[in-house]
Amino acid sequence: MPPKILLTRPWPEGAFAYLKARYDVTVNDSGVPLTKDQLIAAMGEYDALCPTVTDKLTAEVLSVADARVKMIANFGAGFEHIDLNAAKAAGIRVSNTPDVLTEATAEIALLLILMTSRRASEAERGLRNGDWNGWKPTQFLGQSLDGKTLGLAGFGRIGQATARKAKAALGMNIAYYSRNRVAPEIEAAFDARYVGSLDELAAQADVLSLHTPGGAGTHHMINAALLKRMKPTAILINTARGSVVNEIELAEALDARTIAAAGLDVYQKEPVVNPALLPLDNAVLLPHLGSATVETRNNMGLRAAYNLDRFFAGEDLLDGIA
Ligand code: 8YV
Predict the structure, then answer these.
(1) Which residues form the D-isomer specific 2-hydroxyacid dehydrogenase NAD-binding domain (predicted)?
(2) Which of 120, 123, 190, 318 could link 140 by a cystine bridge, Cβ 3.0 to 4.6 Å?
(3) How far does the centroid of ligand 1 lie from the alpha carbon of residue 77, in Å?
(4) What is d(CA 312, CA 71) in angstroms, rounded to the nearest whole number?
(5) Residue-wise pLDDT tens digits, 88-129
(6) For residue 127, how far is its CA from the centre of ligand 1 (angstroms)?
């Protein structure tokens, strides 16, 4: 009997076909995430779960008595929605899908940098609303990026890919802050200048882009005090996790124009977008598109599947995180 696997959301075709050929796969195709009670029930019914960012795998869910689930192959790189300590205590292995979404997420960071600096959403809304009555030398003026400083908060895989693309495509200078300074060869490869604190990075950046994990360690790292350090012309980009930014304090800074703009792909209470952000013309708001390409989502599914293969073959996980 092949192991029983639950996908908490449907997967793209290619990765799904791979999984179906090897396992007894059940898919939640209801269009909405499973409830806590459904997740608890699933713990007793399946050998493995493949959750996504929208499934809260709390200690309560993971520590149900007589659980059958022994492996959680997360469809996604970020894993702050899974209580890893509770998983370990319950003897459940956990994997994620790093690497395969790095370039796609960095593309969305670049998209947001361009959209905010050139006021693309605001201008397009204007055109569609009939507010464009001809070219003028002074309409919808944005900011040039060439030679400006991109400050990266967090310099892991996605931060580094964003640096590479922004330098090559946009001619930006790269500065970064992260808790652990990277090796000199890596700094040299990206021509990246290390800045000793987030405060200092915020003060220096023309564009401040967030590439940290979510979770308690970075909760509301971007708040009123930090936003005050930024230049009035500066732009904030978030493709990391919504919890990193205090959204109310960001909305206040955008409204008061103490910073110029923000480009967000992630929100604290997805899919709810803080209503304070919605009326702001200088906020570009995308619906968590970071990894949303056909290629990347298939590769994420395959990566999760390879972790399942390793687990059921009794081998080391490719991407074991618990
Ligand atoms: C994923 C992401 O689509 O992988 C991540 O960390 O933020 C997204 O791009 C999402 O996590 C799916 O679970």
Answers:
(1) 111-290
(2) 123
(3) 6
(4) 9
(5) 999 999 999 999 999 999 999 999 999 999 999 999 999 999
(6) 32
